[in-house]
């Protein structure tokens, strides 16, 4: 009986210890939060003062508060530009080296966070660390670095980033396209060259086509037209979108054969492009596509007919039944709205 | 007879050990995952990532059946989400109350022509409406066909590459869409992502967003808070670490539209359509050798109202158990087959042995235990020791899930709420667990009888929830 009571008692005590550990965790977390709040309430006004120019002197950050202050400074820096950003960077400059040890941390998450903070607070003075992070074993860390380096002021890094595109193959192409486009028009030469380079993987060229579209580069339209014969549908669609955004009638002959492409997503994109760069001679092919069995194609075809001034045709189609009629009605409704 | 009883008791002991070992294993995995995950969130700025995503259009599908009480506030809340490119598709599933009328009046809806982009079969569509004030808000009005059918209708009329399925009475946090979209940006093979569902009872709701977070005033939803922490932070995070997420809650989950369209949408015959779809996605991708990822992530938060009445909770648990039984029956051929990887080799067998048959084994265990006790085959001391151990392990695992919450997201900031949760972890084994087991057992029996009903839950609405919070504070 005593043994049993002891066993039950031991279980109760063990459970109470577990619960106590959770409470201790809370006490510790509260302590940390309080400390952070105290540092924040102390340093936020200092940073605001420096940013607004009302305060010139930069106080020395106590050793044990450096990491918190850098965290707060990085948060501010993300929201600022120009002189205001520079003033936050000046404040944090003496302390950024403290983050370098995190770049050697075994945890990719910690390395990524360090790359992010260093690039926000001291990209110019610590660029070599960020460039080195492009080759970090973790593709996530590499991408954080690539995003930081994809900036108009870092034009010299564009090729380095482009050379690492294979590392971001599983990331969303639109995310990578947007990242590259952030370099600005200074990167156009490299991007055009990349798109036209048949030795590069199709997936990466499609990403680059997306960037050129975002940068609205009219000179890349003829390169895109030359790529339309590719077997890779993803690349073809990216090039069609580029032509749709920046192309002209000159590219129409290259686009026309694609309105009969077996893949519905290529066909729908081609129909859409022709509504912008095509002419009356395309009406027949587009009308053919309004009877396609994919709604993605029929909707694009209906909109294209409207763009090409075929309102009457669309109105007569809308009177009927089926997918073509529904698509016609949707296009007409959109126009009216 | 005595020998048989002894053998069965040994079986129960082994079952008990394996079950708790599994829970412990999942909790340890969850602990590791959450630690990494919290750090990872710091290395990638969510707002920055999503604002520069270059567009990952998301369609929010909100099935609504007799939700007149809450629908306007729900939609208003959805209109304030922080995400650059999303549309809201409310599917009025043949409501018999004023759901549609309220939507039309409140959001200035007008009938439009809109082509269905998928052809998943549904009950007839009456009309499609678009808001004149919010061009991204659509309402599909259709004949009643159940939640899965409504989701399929929404899927047909959605245009986003990703769609997010949710309940009409669920409140999403402002950045929930951005967070749930992140895995799709990070890995193009992602086909489904589940977010965490938390209980709204006891929280302040203001203008469709969550304010002060607190525990519910009533005991029943409080127990559910603990259950949800265990289910989401320990179990689902653990399964995700193993690459075997089988459940994405119907209250909040995001899916790649093209893949769900390819598998034929939600199964309208199943009352567990959320789990069924996820299992089918695993099956489809593995059968067709398609690289895929199905994840659970704990930071996109959806808040939902928990049943406060025993009868409602009983109906909900009954339905969950029936849903589980249907899913397992339908996909039984996946069980134990190598081609289905961890989902087929580990997760599904676990769900059969412990989630589906658990209540039966538990009941039989009690019966055998009492018989053995009365026959003197087991001493009273051993019986008490075993029960104490069972209670201890149950409580310890609940305490562990509270610890996981504490080390990661710390949503319950008041210390008294934390103490209450820990107290609940200690007492839930006395009554609540047993009644839960009974409901699950009843659900299993209903499944064997092929009962396909959903049951209804009376909504207090978010105002009602807020009133609950006020009462708690006073």
Structural description of this entry:
The complex is a heterodimer of chains A (337) and B (474). Chain A folds into three domains: 67-149, no CATH class; 154-247; 258-337, Alpha Horseshoe (Leucine-rich Repeat Variant). Chain A is built from 18 helices and no strands. Chain A has helices at residues 2-52, 66-79, 82-92, 108-122, 127-133, 139-149, 158-163, 173-181, 188-196, 202-214, 221-227, 233-246, 252-255, 264-277, 283-289, 295-307, 311-318, 322-336. Chain B has a domain at 45-329: Spore Coat Polysaccharide Biosynthesis Protein SpsA, Chain A. In chain B, the strands form two sheets. In chain B, strands 3-4-5-2-1-6-11-8-12-7 form a ten-stranded mixed sheet, with helices on both faces. Chain B has a two-stranded antiparallel sheet with strand order 9-10. In chain B, a hairpin with a 2-residue loop joins strand 9 and strand 10 (209-210). The longest helix of chain B has 42 residues, at 2-43. Chain B is globular and about 75 Å long. In chain B, 50% of the residues are buried. Chains A and B meet through helix 1, helix 4, helix 6, helix 8 and helix 16 of A and helix 1, helix 6, helix 13 and helix 14 of B.
List the SSEs and their pairings.
The complex is a heterodimer of chains A (337) and B (474).
Chain A (H helix, E strand, L loop, with lengths): L1 H51 L13 H14 L2 H11 L15 H15 L4 H7 L5 H11 L8 H6 L9 H9 L6 H9 L5 H13 L6 H7 L5 H14 L5 H4 L8 H14 L5 H7 L5 H13 L3 H8 L3 H15 L1
Helix pairs in contact in A: 1-2, 1-3, 2-3, 4-5, 4-6, 5-6, 8-10, 9-10, 10-12, 11-12, 12-14, 14-16, 15-16, 16-18, 17-18
Chain B lengths: L1 H42 L2 H6 L6 E7 L6 H8 L7 E8 L5 H9 L1 E4 L12 E7 L5 E6 L4 H11 L4 E5 L4 E2 L3 H11 L3 E10 L5 E2 L2 E2 L8 H23 L10 E5 H6 L10 H15 L5 E12 L5 H21 L10 H16 L1 H17 L5 H29 L6 H13 L4 H17 L12 H13 L1
What distinguishing features does this structure have?
A: 337 residues, mainly alpha, Leucine-rich Repeat Variant, 3 domains, B: 474 residues, alpha/beta, Spore Coat Polysaccharide Biosynthesis Protein SpsA, Chain A, ten-stranded mixed beta sheet, two-stranded antiparallel sheet, 15% strand, globular, disordered C terminus
